[in-house]
Write a structure and sequence with these properties.
Rossmann fold, four-stranded antiparallel sheet, 2 domains
């Protein structure tokens, strides 16, 4: 079953002429960020989105994340046709259907790991006749999410007391706590060193093995090699859609990286 289905997605921006900023004119420039993209993802897939600067990656991510609407085309997410949705439905989709993971973690500095993970549950958009969650239920769900990313012993720590990799694990737990249709990760290891990057990619691979659907935007082929499928954009068009035949295993690469570092330390 398709969790994500995009058909003929176009996104155009109208840029006013520098000489006539006060009103739209015939001199306005039309920027075609996406030019009719067709893309679908089944439940349980792990897809990386790649492409050079200006290829349309960020625009596609904004549409996938329901942060923007296409100029033309349809985007169906978990059975909801989003391109015709109103602002309230968009807010519900972002809260319940999508788990966001960003490069910069976006954790609240004065709240604990547990409180950061609980936050989406406070703003949980309820369905009609759906019961409100109690404080105890919210706490239990947040603890379960932190346990799933291996941080059940760090739940009372503040972000400043955690490593970069641990902070990103908190962010991933926060993304999962509402049991979204898919996780949307934007350059999730951009602020991490090699060891922490491999830890996070190993976590994503494990979550994917458990059935989580993950869409990861990246410009690094080395990271895309840990996913199951790679789509490539260029000039606003999808130019390649390939399965990863020889998928790398992040835990194995992390073990080798640690071994190499031990040998380097002994040699120095």
């Amino acid at each position: 079953m398709s969790v994500i289905e995009l058909r003929g997605i176009k996104r155009e921006y109208r840029m006013e002429s520098k000489s006539k900023r006060s009103s739209l004119s015939e001199d306005a420039v039309i920027v075609r960020a996406l030019r009719g993209v067709d893309f679908s993802a089944e439940a349980g897939e792990f897809v990386s989105v790649m492409g050079p600067s200006g290829s349309g990656k960020s625009t596609l991510m904004n549409i996938l994340g329901c942060l923007d609407k296409p100029t033309a085309g349809t985007y169906t997410l978990d059975g909801i046709e989003t391109s015709k949705s109103d602002s309230d439905t968009f807010a519900y989709i972002r809260n319940r259907k999508i788990g966001f993971v960003f490069q910069s973690f976006n954790l609240l500095t004065r709240t604990t790991a547990l409180e950061n993970v609980e936050l989406p549950l406070f703003y949980r958009r309820r369905l009609l006749n759906e019961k409100k969650q109690t404080a105890q239920i919210r706490k239990e769900r947040a603890i379960a999410a932190l346990r799933e990313v291996g941080l059940d012993k760090r739940m009372d720590h503040f972000p400043s007391q955690l490593s970069g990799g641990q902070q990103q694990r908190v962010a991933i737990a926060r993304a999962m706590v509402n049991d979204p249709a898919f996780i949307l990760a934007d350059e999730p290891t951009g602020n991490l060193d090699t060891g922490m990057t491999l830890e996070i990619m190993g976590l994503f691979q494990e979550l994917n093995r458990q059935g989580k659907t993950i869409i990861m935007v990246t410009h690094e082929p080395e990271l895309a090699a840990y996913t199951r499928r790679i789509i490539t954009l260029r000039d606003g068009e999808l130019v390649s859609d390939k399965q990863v035949n020889k998928r790398r295993n992040a835990p194995d690469d992390l073990a080798q990286w640690k071994k190499d570092h031990v040998l380097l330390a002994e040699a120095s």
